[in-house]
Design a protein that fits this description.
Structural class: alpha+beta
GO biological process, one term: arginyl-tRNA aminoacylation
Number of domains: 5
CATH topology of the largest domain: Hypothetical protein af1432
Largest sheet: 7 strands, mixed
CATH class of the largest domain: Mainly Alpha
Shape: flat
Catalytic activity: tRNA(Gly) + glycine + ATP = glycyl-tRNA(Gly) + AMP + diphosphate
InterPro entries: DALR_anticod-bd, Gly-tRNA-synth_bsu, Gly-tRNA-synth_heterodimer
CATH architecture of the largest domain: Orthogonal Bundle
GO molecular function, one term: ATP binding
Subunit structure: Tetramer of two alpha and two beta subunits.
Strand content: 5-15%
Distance between the termini: 46 Å
Amino acid sequence: MPSFLLEVGTEELPATFVEGAIAQWEAMIPASLKEQYLTCESVKVYATPRRLAVVIAGLPQQQPDREEEIKGPPASAAFKDGKPTKAAEGFAKKQNINLEDIEIRPTPKGDFVFVLKQIPGRKTSEILTELIPQWINRLEGKRFMRWGDGDIRFPRPIRWLVALLDKEILPLSIPNGSETISSDRHSQGHRVLHSNSVSIAEATDYAETLGKAFVEVDPQTRKTAIANQVKVAANSVGGEAEIPEELLNEVVNLVEWPTAVVGTFDADFLVLPPEVIKMVMVTHQRYFPVLDTHGNLKPYFITISNGDPAKAAIIASGNERVIRARLADGEFFYKTDLKKPLENYLPDLENVTFQEDLGSVRDKVNRIIANADRIGKQLEVREGELAQIKRAALLCKADLVSQMVYEFPELEGIMGEKYALAGGEPEAIAKAIVEHYLPKGASDRLPTNIISQVVALADKLDTLVSIFGLGMLPTGSSDPFALRRAANGVVNIIWSADLPLNLHELLKDLTTDFVNSHPNAMLGLIHHLEDFFLQRIRTLLQDEKAIDYDLVNAVLGDEDIEYKERALQDLLDVRDRALFLQEIRGDGTLDIIYETINRSTRLAKQGDLDTGELQPHAVINPSLFEKYSEQAFMEALEDLIPNTQAALETRNYRQLVTALAAIVPTVTQFFDGENSVLVMDSNPKVQRNRLNLLGLLRNHARVLADFGAIVKG
């Protein structure tokens, strides 16, 4: 069975595009082959900075022959008095069939004409010729460009095209203005190590042939080689390599034939904070740091060269000059910044705009202090801690106007911690300055102490309330102020630290403050914010806590305002109830109570009992009982009360579910036993009494969840 090779040769591609293109082709190409009824044994995508390629093994010579049923116009339009109309003739002509081949068949929408068409399989080579331009043109990424006088858009100019079906060239042309890129079997080797073109004899020879031209086309092989070389290079200078995964993934797509080169820098630079040195190495220069056995930096770095290994000394020397200059700049900024205490930077924040309608970063700091004070008091933190919280809030943005952070914005917070400690601030305050930015992403760590947690919450809530207040809500993928991440951070901090924070009350206070100071604030600000938080809670429960969607609905409600407010009033409770529901679904306990509670919940909607009522004596009239099952139901509800109270006070939902399971046989007798009753009795008083019994059971169960939202497994 034939194998096929496609290689798109280009100028050097951005590393981020290469990584994304691999993933796109791995999904796109098999799917498009399947759409064309083409099977294959394997699809292997290759990529380097100068090429994207795919080798498809085990293709058939052509599509299989197939039958396809095609639906035409309604029979009433296709035939009149038993004779074909122009509609039938047009359908037959379009499908290239005889009128005798048309069949009339009934459908839910009436009789229609059909034809069962025999479609011969097309040659694989023809189909590939049509698919290849689609594979190239459908790639997505940032900053596509045009070149020459053509209209093709790609991250870098396309310079050659290889298309082989086994040993034969698949003729293919891509016009681009006055230039036409035509396929052949000639590729390009490594720019430095093999400057001549490379002829590929057949598709399956691709990786081997390019390897002889010093191009390793398999990204995974390059990745393994780079990691191994970096480790060996670090060991050669008595150290251990630090290999950040993100850097490794980037470097893989910057080289075609990797060579690890060891460089050194003046050990005097090690007086700089290690974060500064690593920032220069990793983010700016794409070097791998070298550590000693205690995890401290050594005065070495490792770069991955795409050049001639014989010129390693020259390559190292050039990189050493670059890092020496960068570290010298860093040393100057650091020493200059340390000449004054962190607090002295605060006036300069007045010259930095946070947002045009929200004032300067100094104005934001004032709001963070006020928010932090309010949060600290709600959490009833000790006076000493509250003072530290307010001090940390005051200083949390000060390093933004330091020279170091101006030069290296990625060090925000990190340098604030260093400068705070150097100025004699307590460790908890210094830590809060760096940790108040956490979490910065879904997998980031979270603030570790109450000082950091409160300042982080205060900062994120200020951003959310302020930006929402201006009506700048995130839409689709557009979220320039990272509001989703901020809201996720608020929820995750509360959950991780078990903070008993009433977010509903807090948002009410903060939005009131904002509206009072901004008369043109968005209408319904509190409702928009609360709905936004509920969306984030829903997403976090499903995606991060792995809670089934219907159980999330059961703890958050759908249009149930009471449940929404309850969730925002106690985020710990909504988390615990969701986790508990998932647990009892897994161990089968939920099945024991589901049918009974769900049936009661559905019927209780026919009544008018307040969902907060739990006391039978307040709403049940025993004199209206006609069957013993009603009395037994009421007594069981009375026995349920202490268990429900325990759940409300201590979140002991296991005790509540055990009690609900115990009431199931009694309710079953009420519905279906010898003493069963007709709930919707003709006597309205009796009917209401029975609906109230069911409503009470529903209300006790609602302390855990809205069982009406749970889907039977």
